[in-house]
Amino acid sequence: MRTRRASVEALAGCGVEASLSATSATCVHIPASPGTSIAGSLGVKFSPQSAEFGCAPAKVRRPQHGPSPKEAKVAHHVKQIMTAKVETARPDMTLKEAAERMRLCDIGMLPVCDGQKIIGAITDRDIAIRATAEGSDPEITAVSDVMTASGICFCFEDDDVKDVAALMRDRQVRRIPVVDRKKHLVGIVSLGDIAQHSDERTAGATLEGVSQQAHGATR
Asked: Does the pLDDT of residue 207 top 80, yes or no?
């Protein structure tokens, strides 16, 4: 170690940059073309721009630039984040059956489908306001009697996530059925999906917008 330190000091006296590590050999760097006297006296093997003294040239670590964990999981299309397995209701199902399915799945909305095609949607609010409040018998009243059939909120599987997030804010809903271009139901996208898989600005704006719905009604 003392011999290596002496060599470093000798190199420094000749205008040569040198470094000393306790666990590695001494590495030096000579900015100008090396002189013959230095090489002969120190036994240094020179390259055109650098010199070695018993070790390989030091490797420079460059910072790796990449997306943050949040950015890495940001999705662009709805089909990337939707839930493909969807609980649905038939139009001839009774309200009691629909309500029981909502309770079992812990959800507040069921798409109503005739085969694969979506024809409406029914929510727990629809059952409460349009049936229970009107005195309708849930054991005989059909889903088709109280469901929302016109103006139903849905999106396409290839829609941009940001557009669907804006739709959620505008319509004040937490779940949106997803269809293909034939209008066949292929999934459902929720507010939680948007929050988890979109950028922070979109997620924050959507959460704040939907949370402002009147009276905290479940959609």
From this structure: no
Angle at 29 between CA 26 and CA 31, to 5 degrees: 165
3-state secondary structure of 142: strand
Cβ atoms within 10 Å of 110's Cβ, excluding its own = 28
CA 178/CA 157 separation, integer angstroms? 6
Dump pLDDT digits (tens) for 135-181.
Answer: 999 999 999 999 999 888 899 999 999 999 889 888 888 899 999 99
Across 125-137, average pLDDT: 95
Identify the burial level of 81 via C-beta atoms within 10 angstroms of its C-beta, where 0-12 means exposed, 13-18 middle and 19 or more buried: buried
Q: Is residue 53 packed enough to be buried (19+ CB in 10 Å), middle (13-18) or exposed (0-12)?
A: buried
d(CA 101, CA 47): 77
What is the C-alpha R_g of the chain? Answer: 35
Question: What's the CA gap between 165 and 41, in Å, rounded?
Answer: 73
Second-level CATH architecture of 69-216: Roll (3.10)
Distance CA 88, CA 78 (A): 19
Structural domain boundaries in the chain? 2-52, 69-216
DSSP code, position 190: E
- Residue 180 neighbours by CB under 8 Å, 6+ apart: 156, 157, 186
